[in-house]
From TrEMBL:
Alphabetized Pfam families for the sequence: Aminotran_1_2
UniProt family annotation: Belongs to the class-II pyridoxal-phosphate-dependent aminotransferase family.
Pathway: Porphyrin-containing compound metabolism; protoporphyrin-IX biosynthesis; 5-aminolevulinate from glycine: step 1/1
Protein's UniProt name: 5-aminolevulinate synthase
EC code(s) of this entry: 2.3.1.37
Swiss-Prot/TrEMBL catalytic activity: succinyl-CoA + glycine + H(+) = 5-aminolevulinate + CO2 + CoA
Molecular functions (GO terms): 5-aminolevulinate synthase activity; pyridoxal phosphate binding
Keyword presence, Acyltransferase: yes
Entry cofactors: pyridoxal 5'-phosphate
TM regions (residue ranges): none
Amino acid sequence: MDMNTFFKNAIDGLKEAGNYRVFCDLERKSGAFPRALRHRADGSTQDVTVWCSNDYLGMGQHPVVTAAMKEAIDRCGAGAGGTRNISGTNHYHVELERELADLHGKESALIFTSGYVSNWAALGTLASKIPSIIVYSDALNHASMIEGIRHARCEKRIFKHNSPEDLRRQMAADDPSRPKLVAFESVYSMDGDIAPIAEFCDVADEFGAMTYLDEVHAVGLYGSRGGGVAEREGVMDRLTVIEGTLGKAYGVMGGYIAASSLLCDFVRSFASGFIFTTALPPSLAAGAAASIRHLKASELERAKQRRNVEKLRARLDAHGIPHLPNPSHIVPVMVKNAAKCKFLSDLLLDNYGIYVQPINYPTVPVGTERLRFTPTPLHTDADIDHLVGALNDLWSRCALAREVA
Ligand SMILES: *Cc1c(COP(=O)(O)O)cnc(C)c1O
């Protein structure tokens, strides 16, 4: 087989289906968040405002975070120099793990090189090592959880999205003596809906199951100290494992689990994805710890973000531009057509300097294509007016349906 033909055919298939991805080549401007310089293929540049960043609070450019990272580089240099077990554990890692355990009210925490790796490694290890375990997984769980569970080759059940009733029905049908684990998220990234965490914990308790909650889209953003939705709802102690990222609201990079000392020690001791990889650079650990510490004490960023989310929703409603109602910070503007969604995104970027990535199948179901906006505390009223004005123009120009609120 000619491999080049094979690669090209596979890529052409994506292009024909409209699923081929093209990067937007951006240069983020520190101190001017959410502005960036876009580099076009022809070498020219354009000033843009980013409206789809997961740096939800702009912490990636917060002076407290960048200063901590610079100081750590000056003190410890660039890389960690090894795996955690072989010379790679730096004091900054130890401090970050303490900060995370405290954030979630757990005995311990364990950091990984990304949120993806933390889900893959923690779920993969628990589910492959615990004999005869059954894992119950929400139908809309993130790829990193699905891959971890699949890698474990354990028995698994998929329950209906955010349905404690379906979970209960499936658990009741299984052997009561087998160990069980329920894996779900708090805030779901594409629809911005939030899981009924306490109800899931009730069902898990009834059947003696462990609970594993991915708070990746919630840490830093919800709860009075940024501990996530579980903190806001006072249920952190009911979860066996809370998993999060340092790469979204905390603005840096890395992932973690927080749980009992024994569980963390178990994963630390058996997870290949933890053991056999170089530790995070000390500067990332220092920046993440500074970001977490700042957001434990400061409500300012969260309050401004909530205000901007409300403001954007109200302005969209005033123009009848349809967006999915949800209780989170994610504002999905529904286009419901893949080609139009891509077309709108291109026009917003080229003609208005607004960068928002189109979200099409397979990320969301066909017919629910959308533009996913994430207002931050640092978008201005003028940014919001400019965005809604642009959408209003394009809605008329493309004859898209409006909704009367
Ligand atoms: C982004 C994401 C992850 C992975 O986190 P990274 O730190 O980006 O690797 C895990 N779970 C969910 C739900 C996510 O959206």
